[in-house]
Amino acid sequence: MTIFANIIDGAEDTTGATFDVVNPSTGAVVGQAVSADAAALDRAVAAARRAHPGWAATPWADRQDACNRIAALIEANADELARLLSQEQGKPLNGVGARFEIGGAQAWTAYTASLTLEPEILQDNDEGRVELHRVPIGVVGAITPWNWPVLIGIWHLVPTILAGNCVIIKPSENTPLSTLRLVQIMQQALPPGVAQALASDGGLGSQMTAHEGIDKISFTGSIPTGSKVMRSAAGTIKRITLELGGNDAGIVLPDVDPDAIAEDLFWGCFINNGQTCAALKRLYVHEDVHDGVVDALVRVATGLPMGDGLDEANVIGPVQNRDQYNIVRDFVQDALDQGAQIACGGIPQGNDLFFPTTILTGVGPGMKLHDLEQFGPAIGITRWRDEDAVIALANDDRCGLGASVWSSDPDRARAVADRVSAGTVWINKHGAIQPNAPFGGVRQSGIGVQFGVEGLRECTNVKTIIR
């Protein structure tokens, strides 16, 4: 059985007990991760604080070169990382799966490496000169989820490193292996202590958020856990960036061609088997095209093979873990109990983690599948007639991560998009994040943004020089 070590101060650290990581497709143990304790965290923080002055003083161009080397290392190890990711997360190698994620991680790293943060001259006249500089924060703790462990890991690691910080990443206990291997590979491009990785089967996250040697916490995960992160980080007044849950709404206008939008609409709902914060979670379809859209979505859903991620034929895998599987099952049953109808899929009968792609009609407020984030392979469709009413319904949610509008009329789509309250609104697509476009939520979907220059600024403090 392969044991995956933590990465502390540039080297593998195997101190501590191990825990099993299970393939959700088969139930087999993929490998074991070493569970870091408080002492391991202290060692990692000490190494990061030693490394930080030298890394912060490294010229920006040299840090860019290091990030470009990381991109090349990801590309060189892409097959190994994709297979490891598929085994521990469950997503298939093909489709919008493990190879897609590793390719995205490489491309995201390469793009981020191209960014710069130049000083801004706010004033330069007879009264004096005012310069705004962006400087490193120090040591950053990154806590990442199980749905896109490598790609989201890169979102936390690379801009933080480029900005001159040192980073300690703690991946989810469900999917730690690919992140541990990623950070191990990154050591070839970085000085010891700049990027470290600690796995844990419980308790380490709260220790990181409270640790006096960590200056910022960057967290991607659920709203309840994000609230705990805020409370814990408040004790030492840490900087925070939070990307939390989404209950994204999609509004389909009556002028669409159902067949033309079906595939993009389907993957907006079911990318990564619906296990994506910015996946479409609430679908509002105008009554004039409701049946046509439902039929078109069902045709897409029923034509896609589901199974073991390592089988090259499959493009949809299992739900990653039993807890999330049970949530999706509960939400679907609740909707059915309140009168929703099955268009395809439904309550699974087996004991594995494969949940059939499920589309329900007749879903609305008061049902869990509408009001809460299901984070899995089930979508509820709500029929609408009045535009003002559906926009109000779409905005009536504690989340506000993403949303989308679907129409053949660009001007009408833009008018509706302007009235939808979310961090990102897509037109005729959903969840299409990109590295040059800031991404973050409103309301309880988070604090701060990621990606592009705006996301890079989140990895810095402002320093004003006046003379």
From TrEMBL:
<dbReference type="InterPro" id="IPR016160">
    <property type="entry name" value="Ald_DH_CS_CYS"/>
</dbReference>
<comment type="similarity">
    <text>Belongs to the aldehyde dehydrogenase family.</text>
</comment>
<protein>
    <submittedName>
        <fullName>Aldehyde dehydrogenase family protein</fullName>
    </submittedName>
</protein>
<dbReference type="InterPro" id="IPR016162">
    <property type="entry name" value="Ald_DH_N"/>
</dbReference>
<feature type="domain" description="Aldehyde dehydrogenase">
    <location>
        <begin position="16"/>
        <end position="465"/>
    </location>
</feature>
<dbReference type="InterPro" id="IPR016163">
    <property type="entry name" value="Ald_DH_C"/>
</dbReference>
<feature type="active site">
    <location>
        <position position="243"/>
    </location>
</feature>
<keyword id="KW-0560">Oxidoreductase</keyword>
<dbReference type="InterPro" id="IPR015590">
    <property type="entry name" value="Aldehyde_DH_dom"/>
</dbReference>
<dbReference type="InterPro" id="IPR044086">
    <property type="entry name" value="LUC3-like"/>
</dbReference>
<dbReference type="Pfam" id="PF00171">
    <property type="entry name" value="Aldedh"/>
</dbReference>
<dbReference type="InterPro" id="IPR016161">
    <property type="entry name" value="Ald_DH/histidinol_DH"/>
</dbReference>
<dbReference type="InterPro" id="IPR029510">
    <property type="entry name" value="Ald_DH_CS_GLU"/>
</dbReference>
